[in-house]
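Hey,
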Amino acid sequence: MVEELRVLMLEDEPADAEFAQRELRKAGIVFTSLRVDERAAFVAALDEFRPGIILADFKLPSFDGLSALSLAREKVPKVPFIFVSGAMGEEFAIDTLHQGAADYVLKGHLSKLVPAVNRALQDAEEHRRREEAEASLKESEERFRNMAESAQDGIAIVDAAGAVSYWNAAAERMFGYSQDDLAGRTVNQIVRPASPRDGSAGRGWPDVPVGDQGAAPGTFEAVGLHKDGHAFPIEVSISSAPIKGRWHAVGIVRDISERKRGEAALRRSNRFLRTLSRCNETLVHADDEAALLRDMCHVVVEVGEFALAWVGFCEQSGAIRSVAKHGTCSAEFVRDVSLGDDSGAAACRPVVRALQTGEIQVVGDIAVSDEPEWREAALACGYRSAISLPLRVGGKLIGALNIYSSEAGGFGSEEVNLLSELAGDLSFGIAGLRVRAEREEDARKLERALEDTIQAIATTIEARDPYTAGHQRRVAQLAAAIAREMGLPEHRVVGVLRGAEIHDIGKIYIPSEILSRPGRLSPTEFSLIKIHPQVGYDIVKEIDFPWPVAAMILQHHERLDGSGYPRGLAGADQIILEAKILAVADVVDAMVSHRPYRAALGVEAALEEIARNRGVLYDEAVVDICLRLFREMNFAFA
């Protein structure tokens, strides 16, 4: 009967817990589970539920995974602890492994949960067995021998001279040497220190001689040398035991080739996932297609640790044109090639086959390629495997993302799936940027049309009033300068400019003889003049400008003290900022310019007017900026 696994789940989301449970059931694991989400319940469960494994989220509203890990290591140190989290950086995840966690699994990749659970349970079981073996060694030599001969791990006893005095059956199978074969050999002739190239630096068999206190204890990785000459990674746990009055080093040796392969696969998988994540960040922040392609190639090489990445686009001529590239020998190796080129060198390129077939092309080992020209060029650059992934926009094949690795077999099935997802994301990003570019061009066309329309209106108005020709243009120039100096966003500055360009549109309803009369106007005639803001507002109020143009036109003759027109608005909060800016610019240009009924009063007179009525008729901040423009920044009407 299969023993039921007791699973303690530290999870505040019931749905996430259910997803994890479903993965365990799918794998045929018989279990009972308990979900908790608070510290007190978790501590109680460690004592009462007696879990066989713990699955913990990293962040909870009132508790955190690291605290849970610390409690578990204290109370149930032998129970495997696995983080199941929605987001956990790789460096932080590795740090949790150093703190005692057995593994970590992202919630977005729950397919990895069952392998992680099985591996953790297996490691826990193996750890338990190793502890029992080491305890048995200390009980008696006879008991040790009985256990050692049935052990799956290699066990060796080495004297102070380094000679092997005992070598169990598992060690014989592991190294290929029988006890007799070892005669005249020291242990350091079959076990050498690991190096960074082997995966991790370490030491060989005890580098401290066996003396009065025995051998230096510890667990470390090394390299075993088989009788047939091949090397393999091992893990050695050293302890000491007195035999016939003399200290001996006792080593438990495990072949960790499979574990190393698993670690390498995990590192590679994490590298691919990290690359995918960084590429997605690049996609999110991309504003330009060329920059996107360039940055994607850079991320693939620098973050993904690949030798080369380049993007080729299909031209109407049939050529595959390189549009972005990064990596070793990119300038020498990457070149344009024709889809219609039947030469061997061109046809064997994975990018050509990918764009001819529309399917992903993988070259697992370039060294066995049938085409010598392309093969030798790639090998000379240090490339050993390659993949070409088609890019599609709107259902149309537009090009391919090409990645080269310095390792043979660099693109397994899992990696191909991840890179296929990356190519899909890149295609989506290209499509989005192209749609955005089209929309921006349409917007620019509309903006130019709007600008032309406004200019046409302004020209029509000035044609009826030749004495004030250029007034709206000059007011717009000064108003925009004030708005920009006040720190308004550029979009808002443009709104001030456009509103100022047609702020007198209402004068189109005023008889031209009144507009151009050289003498002083009668009260009745001036009352007609005063309706032009309301008339202008009525003309443009239904036009859907992206700025408050209608309100600017309506309020540009309003004053803070309520003496303005047409509505006599009073108070700074009753008049929009754009209209306050327009009011000051309008007054300055009107006083600086010649009128039929008077000569130009000059810039100083205009500046004295707005300074004298600062905070009374005109907005203080607007007046201060206008004065600074003329007196400190040498502003002049163009």
